[in-house]
Amino acid sequence: MVMKPCFCMLIVFLLLPVLVLAEEAPVGSIKTLDGEVVVVRKDQMLPAAIGMPVFKGDIAQTSKTGSVGIVFRDDTIISLGPESTLNIAEYVFEPKTEQFSVLMKMLKGTFVYISGAIGRLSPEAIRLETPSSMIGIRGTKILIEVNE
Amino acid sequence: MIRKSFIFLCLAGLLTGCCPHRTTVVLVPDPEGHVGTVAVQTQGGEQIIAESGQGVIVKNEKDAPSPATSFNEQDIRDIFGKALDIEPPVPEKFVLQFKIDSTALLPESEILIPKIIDSIRQRASFDISINGHSDRAGKDGYNLELSLKRARYIEGLIVKAGIDKKYITTTSHGEGNPVIFTADGVAEPRNRRVEVIVR
């Protein structure tokens, strides 16, 4: 079957956003999961699953009985207790060009944070933010609680 | 224009000014037992914690954080129990070393390959990274290419053992992620390696 050129063009344009999206690499993945957890990605609410990749801009939300653990590309670990919201606002791990930048917004709930390679290579590039504070770390594990 | 920005400011004020958003930060030892430092900052000031089990409380964004106080194990369990229980295991890291200028493994690294496969199976890992690394001697481009070639060779071995390629990410970090920090141009064999990380 021979498609008309304009029809082909239309398909290319329709696929373009998909192709662009596909190029953005995951920044980590969900490793542990209990109860109901969703990942808000752009306008979508996706149910979390073990092995699911996470991307910059994702917001992880746990329900009243939910909890989840995420491992990032540089081996940073973040876990969330129930009724918690984490916005992965910024995550750049490019050792080849020595570019590192992390901004995690802990909006509410409880969190465990264990720093990874970025904490060792460039700790000043890591910013953890809660609605009332900025947290800077030097290679370690911390616990954070944010009450509304 | 002025009106618009005023409305915006009011909205922003409503959003950020309504709730104090109390924050608690507690420092604990990392999985290797190491305790680092953490700095908690608000508009009102900064508090540094450097001792395990110490924490600070931030009442709102304007006031300085509280001085560091002790949190005992029970306090920590009560607040963070669920988040601690779901904390993923630390990824397992294997460091492989090669014969000079070659993708052939040194014998002591060769024996790690079955251990890597076991680890992937045991953890039911969906997320494996194979990263080539180089030192700062020689030409950047050459080092980068060799370290990537080595990483791809290891990927081939792991795929041959039956692990699905779609779970593997293979890259080169070049000289940007060393074990030992050196000046440019310095040969450091420990930095020439491939790391396999099983998450």
Can you walk through the features of this model?
- The complex is a heterodimer of chains A (148) and B (199).
- Chain A is of the alpha+beta class and 148 residues long.
- Chain A has one domain.
- In chain A, 16% of the residues lie in helices and 51% in strands.
- Chain A is globular, with a radius of gyration of 18 Å.
- About 4% of the residues of chain A have low confidence.
- Chain B is an alpha+beta fold and 199 residues long.
- Chain B has two domains: 67 residues, no CATH class; 107 residues, 60s Ribosomal Protein L30, Chain: A.
- In chain B, the strands form three sheets. In chain B, strands 6-9-7-8 form a four-stranded mixed sheet. In chain B, strands 1-4-5 form a three-stranded antiparallel sheet, with no helix packed on it. A two-stranded antiparallel sheet of chain B has the order 2-3.
- In chain B, strand 7, helix 5 and strand 8 form a beta-alpha-beta unit.
- The radius of gyration of chain B is 24 Å and the shape is elongated.
- About 7% of the residues of chain B have low confidence.
- At the A-B interface, strand 1, strand 6, strand 7, strand 9 and helix 2 of A face strand 1, strand 2, helix 2 and strand 8 of B.
- Strand 12 of chain A pairs antiparallel with strand 1 of chain B, so a sheet runs across the interface.
